[in-house]
Hints:
By secondary structure, this protein is α+β, with helices and mostly antiparallel strands. It is built from 18 helices and 21 strands.
Amino acid sequence: MKEINFRPKARLIKILGEQLIKDASVGIIELVKNSYDADATTVELIFDSLNTENAKIIIRDNGTGMDTETFLTKWMNPASGHKEVQKNRKIRTNLGRLPLGEKGVGRFAAQQIGNKLTLISKNSIDKKILSAEINWEEFDSTDKDLSEVNIRYEEIENSDFFPGNNTGTVLIIEKIRNKFSESDVKKIYSAVRRMKSPFRGVNDFDVSISFQNCPEEWSKYSDLNTSEILEKAPFMFIAIADDNGIVDWEYKFSFPGFKKRENKGKSDLFQETDITLDKDIKIGSFMIYLHAYLRGEPLKVTQINPKDIDELSGISVYRDGIRILPYGEKGNDWLGLDNRRIQNPGQRIGNDQVIGMVEINQNENSILKDKTNREGLIEDRYYEKFTKLITGVITLFERELYEDRKLFQKKQRKVEENIINNKLNTVEKGLNQIEEKVKEKNEVPSVEIKETLNHIKPVYHELKTEIPVTIEELESEKKVLFNLAGTGLAAERFTHEFARIIGGAISSLERLKKLIDLNDPRIKKETDTLTSAHEALRNDIRLLGPMFYIKKVAREKELDIRKIIDNTVSLQEYMLTKENINLEVTGETFTVLMREGSLMQVFNNLLDNAIFWCSRKSELDKKQIRIIIDDKNHTVYVTDSGPGVNSRFRDKIFDPFFSMKGEDGRGLGLYIVKEILDEKGFGIWLVNQEDFPGLLSGASFKIVFNEKSE
Length: 710
């Protein structure tokens, strides 16, 4: 068998640059990372004549530089793997750094930005200066092999970039591929501004931006500081999460005119949220910093520019203090925060309301690896656990800020009402003035009319911009209710159609029995099984029916409480068996005057919660639900052996949109239960285990059906 080697064409370099580096902002970040790997403490980004044909970008650092041998054997050998070896062996630099790059493709970033690259490097060992020039256009040829394109390099005596003993590397990128607009500059500015974590970022690594021969207004893109914006956030949350879902956290609320509040604790995500974790998958512990903001008028109070929130919002990920793209980029809602908020706007925070930083490092979280194209982490099972843990931490944050946000919004609504009333009064006053003037004279000087109208117009326009803020919140909540209404209608249609189909199937089965030989035991066994299955399905639909056909079953009637409970338990039989939960009902029955569907909703919601929280227990723990009927006091207790309700949330669990279930919870189950019971003058309370004999260690609810039920 003959042998042959690959002979890549020169244009492969161009293809790699275009495929691996998305745009100029990604390319510049990659080149800055190379400076970090070279132990630089400062990196200067100089943008010269960007909006002209003479545009060039200079990236200058004070790192260790490269000697000729390093340039020839490593820089000119992409994917040589030396950084990966260094990282795997935990070989740190003199400044204690592990390399951020490992694929050896970062240098193609320069090719993606411009067609000409000049590299000047002075190494820290012998202080010799290397100069190299690369014309990337030579790689465009479809005829040349890669080995036929020559790179010119030499050692030079002096360079203005490195006076005295200064060392480092300078990249001069010219023949810029695409003319830069202000939006391009803003994108690069945003990427650089967020490149370094403001919390656990590298203390000895700074990046600066300057402009030469560029529009004067671009100078505003030189300020990279974000600390003031973060410090003014009303809601702050700092947490460290480990592989087992244990989270140590600290929460702070601070806003002008409100009492400051701080809290800290330790939470088990598996017990307190709906996330499931494979504890055998190890990704290591990580830190997360969250800062949440309320849009509209509150931003004016804190003097935060909304554009800064637009630019910085989202959840970013940092490795060793340096950001991993594209997490946190505008439009990159990688954790699905906006979708969560649509489902539950009263409790969830949206992607544009939070500035978050997740901190990982090479030592602790080495299993989380970058994609080759530098666009995020490899999305494997480790990544999946990583996202689950982050979402769980965000859920804890949302629970903590829930009460503060509620108080804030309540006060804000009053403020907004006063503002609107004051401005409407101003408008009314202005109109009255015009009316008076019209009465006084047949002709009103046009100047006076203009002055009055000029006074009214700004007030009117201000009202136009302020009222939609409140309307937007109401619209958001309305969407959720419409979604739920749609789900109910869909379920009603399904119930009706499914009942009809099951009825037809049972009729067909009965006719089939008459046509076949039922003396054959095998045939009889199969038909009996089919009959039982159909009857079970029809029974389930019959039980489900009252919940959806409320209009048709609008009349109240005396209901046997035990029968309703038994029917509800039948609905949950599958989940009880699946989760290996033991359920018992004790006590003598009594009757309640209610609509059947409403009463079933009460017990079905309570059982749903009990089953969910019991399922969070390990297989070794005893999973138990107990329903105790106290006929003497017309009371029913629903109690479980789950983790119970944290004392911090006891006063909130009946609030609409408050949920402890995380992603799966809409926060409406217990709210609906309370509303149904309140309508009848009945009551429900969360009670303690010692309040009644037989209650279990988890959550216990007491439902009192008062004298009206007799």
